[in-house]
Amino acid sequence: MKPIKPGIARSVILALMMGIISTVITLVIGLTITDPWLLKPPQVINDTLPQLITPQGSAKVVLVNYQPAGIYYDGPNTTAIAGYYCIYDAKVASAGWLTNCMNEINVTAYNDLVRNCDYEPNPRAYSPPGYTVQLNALLSTNYWVQNTWGQAILGAVQVGDEVWNIDAKLLSYNLGPIGTRCGWLIITIHNGKTYFGYSGNGINITWYASYPVGNAVIVPSTFTNIVIAGPGNLAAVNFTTTHIILALWYWNGTDWQPAPIKPGGFTGESVVHAWIYVVGNEAVMTWPSPANNASSIPRPGFKPW
Q1: What is the per-residue pLDDT across 236-256, written as a single tens digit (0 to 9) for each?
Q2: What residues make up the domain containing 164?
Q3: Cα 273 to the chain's mean position, in Å?
Q4: What contacts 9, CB < 8 A, 6 or more positions away?
Q5: I need a labelling partner for 37 at 20 to 30 A (CA). Which of 177, 206, 221, 279 fits?
Q6: Is residue 4 part of a domain?
Q7: Residue 296 falls within a domain, yes or no?
Q8: Count of beta carbons in the 10 Å neighbourhood of residue 200
Q9: Measured between alpha carbons, how far is 254 from 233 in angstroms, rounded to an integer?
Q10: Residue 51: inside a domain
């Protein structure tokens, strides 16, 4: 059975309304999966949880309701981003759909568009593990790309990529390696293609897919983010308890740097409720209580190409 995939139809329509995406692109059709640049050996998985630390600097705590839970990129244009995630705890009560949504501006939450909805649990929305970790990127050539952990196939949880155009048409979808509870999702642009990778140890990358996107860069946007969201197809996830670490890095041309970030981020799926504790380039998502500590996440040890 084909896995449930993260969808963005609602997000792209919203983007059109907000003027984030404004021009029509000429599609470049064709996925190159035999590119020798992708043929790198799989990494050895290191499933060690990072040590919790008391963060330095100011922190921000926000309550998420009926939105994706995470952080979005607010730095310069770049050719690569890397998103780290680590799942300490994630117990799912149910997955379902958001209904009767009404849009309003809520400056006390994300200072962005907030969806007030009713939640209806529905077994058809559930695909184990019942949620996704999504690294998403808006490209200057009006593609929207996703590198996602949470694709459940025959009991294994894999990563997968999706490439969308301005009309919310899915252009490419591929499954990647099996992921673990801690890992790195990577999106990079090289020689006119966007590449999708996964690392379990922060040193070696398994490149599993690519797609031609032209002379593109990754742009700062609420659509460029790392978030926790529902299992796919616009679904929401309702956590009983959760403690998940997210962090975002960008390539400055010579090295990885902590990404300038803000709480929030758009995708088609959402979380019914969660706390987000944001400090530096990191977000700690918890429920039912907010966090007061971060984790010692090392700088990526891999190169984007």
Answers
A1: 999 999 999 999 999 999 999
A2: 9-44+59-291
A3: 17
A4: 168, 234, 268
A5: 221
A6: no
A7: no
A8: 22
A9: 37
A10: no
CA angle 148, 125, 181 (to 5 degrees): 35
CB atoms within 10 A of CB 46: 13
Amino acid at 256: W
Q: What's the pTM?
A: 0.81
How many domains, in total, are found in the chain? Answer: 1
Whether cis (ω within 30° of 0) applies to the bond prior to 50 is no
Above 90 in pLDDT, residue 287? yes
* Tens-place pLDDT, residues 197-226: 999 999 999 999 999 999 999 999 999 999
What single-letter DSSP state applies at residue 26? Answer: P
pLDDT tens readout for residues 174-197: 999 999 999 999 999 999 999 999
Share above pLDDT 90 across residues of the chain, in percent, rounded to a whole number: 64
Q: Is residue 300 part of a domain?
A: no
Q: Count helices and strands (H / E) in the chain.
A: 1, 19
Within 10 angstroms of residue 24's Cβ, the number of other Cβ atoms is: 10
Where residue 280 falls (left for φ over 0; alpha for ψ -120 to 50; beta otherwise) is left
Q: Between the CA of residue 102 and those of 58, 116, 138, 267, what are the distances in Å?
A: 33, 5, 25, 17
Distance CA 64, CA 220 (A): 21
Confidence of residue 49 (pLDDT cuts 50, 70, 90): low
Q: How far apart are CA 65 and CA 145, in angstroms?
A: 24
